[in-house]
From TrEMBL:
Pfam families: ZnuA
GO BP, one annotated term: metal ion transport
Domain of life: Bacteria
GO CC aspect terms: cell envelope
Keywords: Metal-binding, Signal, Transport
Classification lineage: Bacteria, Pseudomonadati, Pseudomonadota, Acidithiobacillia, Acidithiobacillales
Location of the protein in the cell: Cell envelope
Stated name of the protein: ABC-type metal ion transporter, periplasmic subunit
InterPro entries: Bact_metal-bind_prot9, ZnuA-like
GO molecular function, a single term: metal ion binding
Amino acid sequence: MAREIAGAQIVVRNGVGYDGWVKKILASDPNPKRKVIVVQDLLHLPESTKNPHLWYKPETMPAVAQAVARSLAELDPAHAAYFAANVRKFDVSLQPWHLAIASFKAQFGGTPVAVTEPVADYLLQAAGCDVKTPWNLQAAIMNGTDPAPQDVSIQNQLIKHHKIKAFVYNKQVTNSLTASFLSKAKAENIPVVGVYETMPTGDSYQSWMLTETNALRNAVERGMSTTVLK
């Protein structure tokens, strides 16, 4: 991976502390001709941004696509119109997802939900959900540290007393604590929405985001859980 990054003409990195290792690779092999796109900068986010999962923001990928097209046009000016046309096609391909978010927000805005960690928080917020899980608990699970007992208790009470309409569960990062939350949610018949931190094999970005948004709607509207949750 380090060799591919060092040899790339265009590098896109997340920022806000998520991929500092990429920054180190680039610094160790400087190239003034290399185009480096930092998503944090595109979205004008401070370094103190708590949630690094920027790819769940609906506005992220259109901004990235524009930046990539600009960089490609600088490297290959003869094909600038082609790159710009592909950006327009990409934006159109995101419309079903954006419409699904808007539809959910219009019908179910304010829906209380709980999460294991902030992987999909930006999507949930865009959809108008009220994330009830304490931030410190989300951050502890995300960072692999021990959460405060009072935060664990709040999460358990949210589930036990049905103060949430859905439980959003990161299927790729699990431990005994997240498994216990999942078990409790299932026992209380609270619909569970499985989400991924990285794109599942066989999906495109568009299908990945739309599938999870539709799963959220199915959970809230029909009480349906995502299948194959362990």
